[in-house]
What does this fold into?
Amino acid sequence: MPTTLDWSYSDPASWSNYPVMLATQKGLTTLGPDNSVQPGLAERWERERDAQGHDVYTFHLRQDVKWSDGTTPLTAQDFVFGWRRAMLGRERGEMAEIAGARQAVELQERGAPAEQVQAALERTGVEALDPHTLRVTLERPRSYFLSRLANVYLFFPAPSADLAGKSDEEIRDYFDRPREGRPLALGPYRVERWDRAGERVRLVYNPASAFPPPLGPGERPAPVVTLMKSEIGPALYERGRVDFVFIDSALALRGERPDDLHYEPLLSTYFIALNTERPPLNRPEVRRAIAHALDRDALLAGLLPSVRPSNVLLPPDLPGAATPEEAARLPHFDRERAREELRGVPGLDRPLRLVFRAGDSFVPEVAIAERIAAQLATVGITVTLDARSDFSSEVARRTPEGPRAYDMYMRRLGADYAHPNTFFTLFEREGNHQTGWETQGGGEPMARFERLLEEADAEADASRARTLYAQAQALLLDEQAVIVPLYHPDRYYRSRPKLRGLDVDPFNFLALKSLRLAPEAAEEGARP
It folds into this structure.
């Protein structure tokens, strides 16, 4: 269930808002079937670098887009209004790369008068040149900016004609109490009702949308979609009470699989992280040996209907992913090589503790952990397993001697946008990787890693940027062997045949943009 409908102001639990936001709003860009950046609300754009080294984008908006009232046109001012609110909102860090945004936030946090804060916002790098032209200036060149615009909903426009001049309380009421066709939408649906107590959101079709679902012969849009939270979703599906349900347990995928089971590949990677500060894993050759010791195919065999074993961090469907030749040069299964790398290494006489999350998940973590322990035993490494309900705290916990207490942990990393940068930020110095690798080699490898990312993020040429990201991936996975990728997860769900085009997007969110009803579908509409 969403925690807010105010997509500009948002909140730190933003992931839960995405299904509704993506169904009701749109970005300047969108993603094609290959996850490449395509025109969205902007029909085209230009990118240039100004004399101060800033990235400057000029977006030319589509002139046929109207808000869901059917009369109010989309304008560049809608972006200016929405983005300025987002700069001071609960997730303002997402907007920090816009020129001047940090200065406005600093004034707000110092308690400066509202007039000074507003004046600073007006100096930020988001300007309406005319009703259909938006100019955006970034502090530094960022190659991933267009990818973020496609689905990071803080960058979506806000209906300024409705909201301008309203007090903060009136704006909260506008979003918190949907009524009379508000809040306005641009996507194929708008929110008609939000029942917090019953944990339901009722969406109704938006006939004014410039982005209708692609209808085939006899198909029609689903007039009503009700999203609901339930602990007994699978049982409701079996009883015919709902028409779509996520499969959140790997155990539910065992045995006979129903004909209506579907899965979608995610831009996501499941991996082992290694504590680089604690012997014997403070030696790169030991960490690399673990990567060579693991047979990913055998780790996953029979656990899921479909698996994508991998020895790379960047998923293959991600623009800029490793080529097969590059992947072959990264550590992969070679048990004899693992034994050779471990020969004579001190400190392997103690068990290594592998920490993972306790509880049910569509990732079969217990089975994977048990198989990891069995495979590492064949190269002389003993592993003890520790399922933790306090996973994050345990991974961050330090021993009295200083290093973190774990030896290895398992986790899934999912993309926030379709660009390599989203996978690498976790492993930067300020990232929440908890591996201690920033201390290795006196900090030189980490510094080199961050320089590669900085160069790639600023590189306008996609081919050259891809080469730099490939070098960063090799440094992380091979030279330093900080993590060991295992596979790229898929998302599983069940859906009635009458629902067409309803699926899960690459970021693990319910996707309604192509939803339509089959010709024989009942009149009551869809009930995911």
